[in-house]
């Protein structure tokens, strides 16, 4: 049961072979058992989740069940949920109980899904290892000495350890795909604007995008169908007809014949670990066997993506996080002198080091006299990067490469060196800058004797609104491979 | 002012006009004034985590209206930017405003400065007008040493209207502010309530020696919420700056506040501690795009503008330019006047104008009432003018009727003037026979005056007219009394 796909669970619920309450209890029990070691959840509320499960069972009994009705879903703690503690992994919001539902939460509620718990994350989604959380680091279920990736590390670990059938994440520079890769999951960052950001605590507004994290492409397709859709409360939400993201899953295997896979030479240079390279190359061979052709392409400005990102994202975050001032909600220093002192102490005590670092960088690059040199330049680079992709998609249908330059690394390995940490996202950041959809799927294992098997992720980048196609492509691969069904040892 | 002889004053104004929309500029919360603190602050206004702004198109339409009214360019694409600073009544830690690309660019407003014969027209150029949100309010009283925050006003739409430094005196600045105040109300984008802060001005003031091509260093007087304070503040500031320079000092760029109790301006912060607002385009909002069709639609919904209405009054009613300008000083005034003419008849337009600009305006002024709140309705005043026009009453009787109307007689009834005339028997005596009889009595009783008149004293004639009018309690037609008296006196002499 814990390894079942969402559609299998849905079928079991429909056949009444189990109830949503039973299913929810099963996963709540697994959380109770495994979470103390993994720290994937910040908030679990048995009563609330079971109340949701009962409501889902009633909905099914009333004949109003959809594909996700009764299925428990773990939600990243970045989504405000009515009545749930919503911390964003920060001391700053450690006392903040959501007074409303984020769009994503509301969409799952509408679909009848059960909120299983709020997952751990890097503080305000800033990090690539889940070590910046105020609630402590998340452990990688494949090897608890390793990081799960970040910032959606709790969501990734929860699904990898089968504590949840599926979870949500958010991706500003790789925060869905990198932890998906490091934990052996399928994770999708949709086209910017496909999923409403309403109720998602903002990190970098022009880059943030929510998406599904699950065991397979098919599960992600079901999840995205529930999450996506126009929302007038988010001005950057795209007004497009609703899509069924499962529509390409049924395409027969021959559907990959003639698929042009672009391989950016910049993604296959030095910097990629050998174990990752081997797994990615093997996956590409598999796609060729399925009838796809690979073409070398170039994304000449991709080398500028990390520096451009670390101007734009901090700039936006420095402004977005200004609302956390201790005045109206959230953390306020217990003792302070005047107003300025209250601000300084509340923010000094309420934010962790990485968040402060990015606020400082962002404040600097927006300052008078630096704005043109940093922020405007970065925006120009951003346009160049987007143009690179437009040109590339004239030569190919999808782009593939590694998701992360290495498999999961050890806790503490990069936390003292921010630049090394930032480079973890070297392959993922450019799609956020361009607003493109990108997916990571498990494609094998790396690691060494000491670490044991650690998952490798293959990144599939699509053209704008190419989600259904990309999920179809990934699904074909998952029909002939079983990487996505593998479970970490000792969790079954 | 002798002090000013060698100096030129340069003033530019920035005005914040609160836009008369039902809901806030980026949220659905209501904008009505006076609700209990924080009763009108929704999740977006208090900047809860995760909330996002959505632009209120009504606020944009107000900006388009304004742009059309001043002949400005409506930017086909403008950008909302974040102005970052920390303050407890600024919930997001930034204000959403427009910075590099405002929605309204350029334009001009014609003002009239001076009184009577000395009136001169002047054009004040506008630099820009941009949309932004207001902040909340900090309340420093009644909180036992702490401060209270009321976020009802947070997110209220504002249009910030900025002029070029085109004004050369406090009179011009006040004339501009008044003209702008009238215009925003005319086009119905702002209620103009200065007490409630719906219309507030900042004045940038500098001085330079006459003939100096270079502008002096300016100081900005913040938050002037009455025309009187604006005049006082600018006059004080100008004197302060000139005296300082003449004493060998220099002017430092600064923001100052006017204290109405002392009549002085006082520096609030200098240039050194000016904020770095770190403006950048708000990534939560798309660029504001205004298609020509939208502008056309708004144009179609605009009321007739003062300039056009003034021309029409001159053309259709035969009013002088002065009268037409005065009557189009505000939309309320113009509408009132048109309603008076409609009730009295188009031929009486000149008389209507005289009444509206004369007795009515004086009375409104005396009682500090707005024409919209006039106790005498336009229909009532029209009814009164009609009775003057058809000689039912004389002008002097009409003033009595007007007094009665002003004091509430016949309130709410359009034909109140007729009622008062009838009730008080004010109808003019035009029966020649009756007037002749009275004149005969007056002549008999005032033989001395008759004699004096015959001796060539014209003054005596006026005394006789006065007696005749007195005898009829002012109701006799004065012209008839005049004519008949002359006839009688001439006949008597023969």
Layout of helices and strands:
The complex is a heterodimer of chains A (492) and B (494).
Chain A: H1 6-14, H2 20-38, E1 41-43, H3 46-61, E2 72-76, H4 103-111, E3 114-119, H5 153-160, E4 166-171, H6 177-183, E5 186-189, E6 209-214, H7 217-227, E7 260-264, H8 274-289, E8 293-297, H9 305-320, H10 339-350, H11 353-366, H12 372-392, E9 398-402, H13 418-422, H14 429-434, E10 438-446, E11 454-461, H15 467-480
Chain B: E1 7-18, H1 57-69, E2 73-74, E3 77-78, E4 80-84, E5 94-98, E6 104-105, E7 108-113, E8 120-133, E9 137-139, E10 148-150, E11 157-163, H2 170-186, E12 199-209, E13 219-224, H3 227-246, E14 254-259, E15 264-270, E16 280-281, E17 288-289, H4 292-301, H5 306-317, H6 321-327, H7 331-344, H8 349-366, H9 378-389, H10 395-406, H11 416-423, H12 432-445, H13 447-454, H14 458-471, H15 478-493
Parallel strand pairs in B: 13-14
Antiparallel strand pairs in B: 1-11, 1-12, 2-6, 3-17, 4-5, 4-16, 6-8, 7-8, 8-11, 9-10, 12-13, 14-15
Task: Give an overview in words.
With 492 residues, chain A is α/β, with parallel strands linked by helices. Chain A has a single domain, classed as Alpha-Beta Complex (Amidase signature (AS) enzymes), CATH 3.90.1300. Chain A is 37% helix and 13% strand. Chain A has an eight-stranded mixed sheet with strand order 4-6-5-10-11-9-7-8, sandwiched between helices. The N and C termini of chain A lie close together (10 Å). The model of chain A has no long low-confidence stretch (mean pLDDT 96). By secondary structure, chain B is α+β, with helices and mostly antiparallel strands. Helix content of chain B is 39%, strand content 19%. In chain B, the strands form four sheets. In chain B, strands 1, 2, 6, 7, 8, 11, 12, 13, 14 and 15 form a ten-stranded mixed sheet that branches. In chain B, α9 runs antiparallel to α10, α12 packs across α14 and α14 packs across α15. The longest helix of chain B has 20 residues. The chains are: A alpha/beta (492), B alpha+beta (494). At the A-B interface, α9 of A face loops of B.
């Amino acid at each position: 049961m814990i390894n079942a796909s969402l559609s299998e669970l849905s079928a079991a619920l429909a056949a009444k072979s189990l109830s949503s309450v039973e299913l929810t209890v099963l996963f709540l029990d697994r959380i109770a058992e495994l979470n103390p070691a993994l720290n994937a959840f910040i908030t679990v509320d048995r009563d609330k989740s079971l109340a949701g499960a009962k409501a889902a069972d009633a909905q099914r009994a009333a004949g109003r069940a959809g594909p996700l009705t009764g299925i428990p879903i773990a939600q990243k703690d970045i989504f405000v949920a009515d009545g749930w503690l919503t911390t964003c992994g920060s001391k700053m919001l450690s006392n903040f109980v959501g007074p409303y539902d984020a769009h994503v939460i509301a969409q799952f509620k509408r679909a009848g899904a059960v909120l299983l718990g709020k997952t751990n994350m890097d503080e305000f989604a800033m990090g690539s290892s889940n070590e910046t959380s105020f609630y402590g680091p998340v452990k990688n279920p494949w090897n608890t000495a390793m990081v799960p990736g970040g910032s959606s590390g709790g969501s990734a670990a929860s699904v990898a350890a089968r504590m949840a059938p599926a979870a949500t994440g958010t991706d500003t520079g790789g925060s869905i795909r990198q932890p998906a890769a490091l934990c052996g999951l399928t994770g999708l960052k949709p086209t910017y604007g496909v999923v409403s950001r309403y109720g998602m605590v903002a990190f970098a507004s022009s880059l943030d995008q929510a998406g599904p994290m699950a065991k397979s492409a098919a599960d992600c397709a079901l999840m995205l169908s529930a999450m996506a859709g126009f929302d007038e409360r988010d001005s950057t939400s795209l007004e497009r007809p609703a899509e069924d993201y499962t529509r390409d899953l049924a395409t027969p295997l021959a559907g990959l014949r003639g698929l042009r896979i672009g391989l950016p030479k910049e993604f296959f240079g030095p910097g990629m670990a050998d174990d990752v390279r081997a797994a990615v190359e093997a996956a590409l061979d598999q796609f060729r066997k399925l009838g796809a052709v690979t073409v070398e392409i170039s994304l000449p400005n991709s080398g500028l993506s990390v520096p451009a990102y670390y101007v734009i994202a901090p700039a936006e975050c420095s402004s977005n996080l200004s609302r956390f001032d201790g005045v109206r909600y959230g953390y306020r220093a217990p003792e302070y002198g005047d107003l300025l002192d209250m601000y300084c102490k509340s923010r000094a005590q309420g934010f962790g080091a990485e968040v402060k670092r990015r606020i400082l960088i962002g404040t600097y690059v927006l300052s008078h006299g630096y704005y043109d040199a940093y922020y405007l330049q970065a925006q120009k680079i951003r346009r160049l990067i987007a143009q690179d992709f437009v040109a590339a998609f004239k030569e190919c249908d999808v782009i593939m490469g590694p998701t992360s330059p290495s498999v999961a690394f050890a806790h503490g390995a990069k936390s003292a060196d921010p630049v090394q940490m930032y480079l973890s996202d070297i392959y993922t950041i450019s799609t956020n800058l361009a607003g493109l959809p990108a997916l990571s799927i498990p494609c094998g294992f790396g690691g060494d004797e000491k670490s044991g098997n650690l998952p490798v992720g293959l990144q599939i980048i699509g053209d704008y609104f190419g989600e259904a196609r990309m999920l179809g492509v990934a699904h074909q691969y998952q029909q002939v491979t079983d990487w996505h069904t593998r479970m970490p040892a000792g969790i079954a | 002012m002798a002090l000013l002889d060698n100096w030129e004053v340069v003033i530019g104004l920035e005005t914040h006009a609160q836009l008369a929309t039902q809901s806030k500029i980026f949220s659905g919360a209501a904008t009505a004034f006076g609700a209990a603190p924080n009763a009108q602050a929704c999740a977006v206004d208090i900047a809860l985590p995760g909330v996002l702004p959505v632009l209120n198109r009504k606020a944009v339409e107000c900006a388009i209206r304004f742009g059309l009214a001043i002949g400005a360019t409506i930017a086909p694409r403008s950008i909302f930017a974040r102005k970052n600073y920390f303050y407890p009544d600024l919930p997001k830690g930034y204000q959403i405003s427009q910075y590099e690309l405002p929605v309204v660019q350029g334009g001009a407003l014609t003002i009239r400065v001076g009184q009577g014969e000395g009136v001169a027209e002047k054009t004040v150029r506008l630099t820009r007008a941009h949309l932004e949100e207001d902040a909340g309010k900090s309340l420093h009283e009644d909180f036992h040493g702490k401060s209270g925050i009321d976020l009802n006003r947070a997110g209220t739409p504002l249009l910030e209207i900025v002029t070029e430094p085109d004004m050369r005196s406090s009179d011009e600045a006040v004339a501009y502010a008044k003209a702008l105040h009238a215009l925003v109300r005319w086009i119905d984008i702002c209620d103009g309530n200065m007490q409630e802060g719906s219309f507030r001005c900042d004045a940038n003031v500098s001085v330079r020696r006459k003939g100096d091509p270079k502008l002096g260093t300016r100081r900005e007087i913040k938050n002037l919420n009455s025309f009187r304070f604006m005049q006082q503040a600018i006059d004080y500031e100008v004197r302060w700056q000139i005296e300082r320079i003449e004493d060998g000092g220099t002017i430092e760029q600064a923001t100052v506040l006017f204290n109405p109790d002392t009549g002085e301006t006082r520096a609030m912060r200098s240039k050194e501690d000016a904020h770095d607002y770190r403006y950048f385009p708000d990534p939560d909002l798309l660029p504001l795009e205004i298609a020509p069709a939208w502008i056309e639609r708004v144009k179609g919904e605009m009321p007739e503008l003062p300039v056009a209405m003034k021309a029409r009054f001159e053309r259709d009613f035969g009013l002088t330019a002065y009268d037409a300008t005065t009557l189009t000083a505000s939309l309320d005034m113009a509408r009132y006047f048109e309603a008076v003419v409609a009730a009295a008849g188009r031929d009486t337009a000149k008389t209507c104008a005289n009444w509206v600009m004369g007795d009515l305006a004086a009375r409104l002024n005396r009682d500090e009432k707005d024409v919209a709140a006039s106790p005498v309705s336009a229909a009532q005043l029209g009814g009164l003018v009609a009775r003057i026009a058809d000689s039912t009453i004389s002008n002097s009787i009409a003033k009595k009727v007007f007094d009665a109307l002003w004091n509430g007689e016949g309130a709410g009834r359009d034909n109140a003037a007729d009622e008062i005339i009838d009730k008080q028997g004010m109808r003019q005596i035009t029966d020649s026979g009756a007037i002749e009889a009275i004149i005969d009595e007056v002549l008999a009783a005032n033989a001395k005056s008759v004699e004096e008149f015959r001796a060539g004293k014209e003054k005596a004639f006026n005394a006789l007219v006065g007696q005749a009018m007195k005898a009829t309690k002012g109701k006799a037609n004065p012209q008839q009394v005049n004519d008949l008296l002359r006839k009688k006196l001439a006949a008597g002499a023969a």
